[in-house]
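Researcher: Structure for this, please.
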Amino acid sequence: MLSVFDFHGYTIRDRKSPSGGISKRIYDTDGESYEPKELLEAYLKFGGMPGIANVGLDTDKVLTLLDGVYSTVVVRDILERERRRGQRQITDPDLLRKVIMFLADNIGNITSITSISKKLVQEKLLDSNRNGNPSVHNIQAYVGALLESYVFYEIKRFDIKGKEYLRTLGKYYIVDIGLRNYLLGFRDMDTGHIIENVIYFELLRRGYNVAIGKVGDKEVDFIATSANEKKYIQVTESMNDPATRERELSPLRSIRDNYEKVVIAGNCNYPVMQDGIKVVMLTDFLLNG
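Model: Predicted structure, token format:
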């Protein structure tokens, strides 16, 4: 997957404003300029698959491209690879799609294999006359195949005070947000978790190891570590509501070490430092990487 702001051949340039400040503008190959937010909105809709650069930002063409990616790379390759290995668990393309749909619809949510299995049964997403109830072992095999194919990535939880990884209740993120929109439909939904998905892969692109942070009964969206630095990161759709600000800042205040603490917000009227915690706009974070 390409970086958010160059997935379609765009370039970023600094522009001096009349007041003397510096802002960033994005230019396409024809010299047309755009606000960063405009391109981000396109990315959150269409994703960043390399083929997007060839078909352009046309919904019908993008859907055709993503349908091909899903049909060949996701479904066919997984089923054929498992057959070559002699594996018997991954044999049902309908079940595979339903597991994919569940994970796509729950990016950023705490998820267990047991919860996936129970939800598929409760919502009658399987034809019980033909398939029966999916066992936890069976669902584990399907999820494992999706992780091995890099369609989804699993992120583990880390107890900040106990300094150890927890064995249960991680999260899943999808490799491309456009693929999620193709599966679930291009509609406004769950913007906060969509932004989380983007930030997770941006952190990986920048070379960080990423985990979920647990501090007491609170959660930090991401702990990003590299060989010489560590950051605690909260991600939110907006920081403009006082209750939301408190909810996002509170877990970071609970951490007693001196590593950098950041809140990344899709919208924020006043992106400033609060209680030693940096509040930055999503576009600024992505542009300054």
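Researcher: Any notable elements?
Model: The mean pLDDT is 82. The chain has ten helices and eleven strands.
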